[in-house]
Amino acid sequence: RVSYASAAPPEVGGAVARLRAAGARRVAVAAYFLAPGRFHDGVRAAARSAGAVAVAEPLTDLPELADLVRRRVDTVAA
């Protein structure tokens, strides 16, 4: 399920709760944030209180992410 940390529905707690109500025993959340902070903290808290067993850490400075950005810039510049 897709959910959002902004004002757009569905929010992460609701998405996790719906999965749990539908019978999912273990729900993990992939939080696609580049850095830690307010949004990630809120997603983690909402997901955990709705029953998620794990929430991914922010992507930060992963080499794979830097490589993806570099390749996309190269493509646009070409």
Based on the model shown, name its key terms.
mainly alpha, 2 strands, 78 residues
What does this structure look like?
47% of the residues lie in helices and 5% in strands. The protein is mainly α and 78 residues long. It has one domain (12-77). The protein has a two-stranded parallel sheet with strand order 1-2. The longest helix is centred in the last third of the chain and has 15 residues, at 63-77. The radius of gyration is 15 Å and the shape is elongated. The N and C termini lie far apart (36 Å). The relative contact order is 0.17. The mean pLDDT is 91.
User: What helical percentage do the residues reach?
Assistant: 40-55%
Provide the structure class: mainly alpha
- Oligomeric description of these chains: single chain
Give a short account of the largest sheet.
2 strands, parallel
Write down the overall mean pLDDT.
91
Please tell me what the overall shape is.
elongated
Number of strands: 2
Question: What's the SSE pattern?
Answer: HEHEH
Number of separate structural domains: 1
Q: Ends: how far apart?
A: 36 Å
Please state the CA-atom Rg, rounded to the nearest Å.
15 Å
Task: Summarize the entry for a quick read.
This protein is mainly alpha-helical and 78 residues long. It contains three helices and two strands. The chain has one domain.
Topology readout:
Blueprint: H1 12-21, E1 28-29, H2 38-49, E2 54-55, H3 63-77
Helix pairs in contact: 1-2
